[in-house]
């Protein structure tokens, strides 16, 4: 539980949203500290960065180095469970980036009695009780040579589409996968199958393909579905904004069958097993909130009074 972080010196980059709004977490890295974030050795703090190059603003940020060992460079933050969570950060891929991003970042909900209940379950169909899977953001190449490309949601949920065992056996071992799933408390009750995240494409505004060597504001929202008498309803949501513009909003998702599962974990995976060389990504100005955040300086006050436009007072966002 971290309040506003105020750095020192002429290059201090103070996050406007957190000056005037209640937030679950804020870190603009101007104190050159992780401030309670989990991280591995390939994600390091930048303490003397050049604004626009290594940082969005100020002199502090996070640099993630992805090597050919396939381990990625992860960091994240755990927080008290919420029904709806928004996460916004700034990021930049280095100029050498030449392929899509495998798994970028995720928001999900681990069980209170098992903080890793959502982990190690790739290939398994969720049961809505063990984990609130939420969504991961990946990317694909849709415009030639514009990379890492177009972002999209990649999500696991109880009634997701999976590969039947006969098809799975053409590229993997369905029996071994189902055995592993059973060991994690997720047996293949529908018969042999291999489950990989279903894709949810951009469906709002203008399609965007993200490029190397420029800063982007990335914000996502996940809202857990409601539950009635031990059965989940199809009313979960996920949304994505790039540079303050809504590019995806999907509704009607069922992730959980128990209200005990809440969103409580944000992770930047930086999972990139396809890496053929060392790549770098820089991250700055991370905010986690229960309300829409917006791009840096876009709206300091939640009520929008500073705009002078009364329409902003009643405007709604996903």
Question: What's the total number of strands?
Answer: 19
CATH topology: Jelly Rolls
Instruction: Compute the CA-based radius of gyration.
Output: 20 Å
> What can be said about the biggest beta sheet?
8 strands, antiparallel
Unreliable segments of 5+ consecutive residues: 1-13, 304-310
Number of domains: 1
Backbone shape: globular
Give the ordered list of helices and strands: HEEEEEEEEEEHHEEEEEEEEEH
* Portion in beta strands: 25-35%
Total count of helical runs of at least 4 residues: 4
Report the helical percentage: under 10%
Q: What's the level 1 CATH class? A: Mainly Beta
Q: What CATH architecture do you see? A: Sandwich
Distance linking N and C termini: 25 Å
Class based on secondary structure composition and strand pairing: mainly beta
> What's the pLDDT, averaged over the residues?
89
How would you sum up this structure in a few lines?
The protein is built from four helices and 19 strands. By secondary structure, the chain is mostly beta strands. A hairpin with a 2-residue loop joins strand 14 and strand 15.
Main features:
318 residues, mainly beta, Jelly Rolls, eight-stranded antiparallel beta sheet, seven-stranded antiparallel beta sheet, 4 helices, 7% helix, 35% strand, disordered N terminus
Question: How would you explain this protein's 3D organization?
Answer:
The chain has 318 residues and is mainly beta. The chain has a single domain (16-160, 195-314), classed as Jelly Rolls. Helices cover 7% and strands 35% of the residues. Strands 1, 3, 4, 6, 13, 16, 17 and 19 form an eight-stranded antiparallel sheet that branches. 45% of the residues are buried.
């Amino acid at each position: 539980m971290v309040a506003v972080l105020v750095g020192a010196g002429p290059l201090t980059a103070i996050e406007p949203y957190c000056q005037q709004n209640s937030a679950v977490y804020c870190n603009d890295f101007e104190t050159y500290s992780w401030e309670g974030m989990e991280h591995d050795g390939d994600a390091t703090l930048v303490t003397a960065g050049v604004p626009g190059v290594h940082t969005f603003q100020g002199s502090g940020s996070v640099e993630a180095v992805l090597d050919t060992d396939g381990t990625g460079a992860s960091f994240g933050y755990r927080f008290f469970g919420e029904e709806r969570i928004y996460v916004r950060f700034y990021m930049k891929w280095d100029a050498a980036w030449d392929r899509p991003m495998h798994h970028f970042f995720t928001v999900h909900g681990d069980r209170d009695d098992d903080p890793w209940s959502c982990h190690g379950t790739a290939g398994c169909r969720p049961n809505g009780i063990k984990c609130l899977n939420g969504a991961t953001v990946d990317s694909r190449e849709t415009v030639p040579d514009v990379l890492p490309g177009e972002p999209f949601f990649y999500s696991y949920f109880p009634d997701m589409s999976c590969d039947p065992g006969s098809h799975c056996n053409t590229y993997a071992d369905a029996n071994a996968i189902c055995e592993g799933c059973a060991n994690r408390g997720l047996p293949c009750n529908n018969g042999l199958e291999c489950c990989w995240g279903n894709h949810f494409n951009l469906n709002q505004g203008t399609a965007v393909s993200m490029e190397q060597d420029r800063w982007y504001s990335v914000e996502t929202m996940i809202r857990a579905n409601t539950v009635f008498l031990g059965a989940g309803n199809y009313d979960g949501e996920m949304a994505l904004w790039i540079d303050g513009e809504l590019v995806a909003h999907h509704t009607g998702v069922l992730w959980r069958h128990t209200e005990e599962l809440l969103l409580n974990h944000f992770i930047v995976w930086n999972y990139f097993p396809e890496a053929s060389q060392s790549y770098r990504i820089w991250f700055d100005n991370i905010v986690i909130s229960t309300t829409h955040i917006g791009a840096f300086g876009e709206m300091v006050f939640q009520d929008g009074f500073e705009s002078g436009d009364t329409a902003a007072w009643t405007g709604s966002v996903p």
